[in-house]
Amino acid sequence: MPKDGEGFSLPLKIIITGLLLIIVFIVLIIYSRELNHNKPQTIEEPILKNTAVNIDYEKLESDYQDALSRILNNFMGNFEILRDQILDLKVTNNYQKFHLELIIALDNLIYNQDRESAKEQLQSIMNNNEWISGPLSNILSNWN
C-alpha cells in the first residue's frame, strides 16, 4: 500500500491499466454483439434457414395451359386485350419461348398491321404445340 504522498508502484499501475483495458474490451464485445443481434438481415443472409420449398412444376405448367386456353376460348375480337391477358400470365421456363412467340405474333398483328405474318406465326405455334391448337384454330378460323 502506498504511503501518504506516494503513488502506486509501477507494477501495480501496469496491472490496474491492464485490468481496465480488459474490462473495456469485454464491454465493447458485448455491445457489438448486441448491435449485430438487433441488426436487420441483409440480402446475403438467408431469411428462411433450413427450409425447402417444393414446387410442382407440372401443376404450374398445367395451370398455364388451362389459363391460356381459357383466355383464347373467351376471345371477343380485340387482339390488344387478348395480348394483355396473355402477358399477365405467369410463365414457367418450359413455356417462355412459346409465350414469347405468341406475343410476337400478336404484336405483328396489332402494331405492325402484318396480318399474314401473324397468321403464319400462329399457325406455326399451333403445329408445334398440339395442346393449344383447338383454341388457336378457333381464332384463326374467325379471322377477318
Written account of the structure:
The protein has about 140 residues and is mostly helical. The chain has a domain at about 55-140. The protein is about 65% helix and about 0% strand. The chain has 6 helices and no strands. It has helices spanning about 10-40, 55-75, 80-85, 95-110, 115-130, 135-140. Helix 2 (about 55-75) runs parallel beside helix 6 (about 135-140) and helix 4 runs antiparallel to helix 5 (about 115-130). The longest helix is centred in the N-terminal third of the chain and has 29 residues, at about 10-40. The chain is rod-shaped, with a radius of gyration of 35 Å. The termini are far apart. The mean pLDDT is about 85.
Number of helices: 6
Helix content: 55-70%
Radius of gyration: 35 Å
Distance between the termini: 110 Å
Number of strands: 0
User: How would you sum up the global shape?
Assistant: rod-shaped
Mean pLDDT: 84
Order of helices and strands: HHHHHH
- What fraction strand? under 5%
Question: Which class do the helix and strand fractions yield?
Answer: mainly alpha
Q: Identify low-pLDDT runs.
A: none
Largest sheet properties: none
Key terms:
single chain; 144 residues; 6 helices; mainly alpha
List the helices and strands and how they pair.
Layout: H1 10-38, H2 57-73, H3 79-87, H4 96-110, H5 115-128, H6 133-141
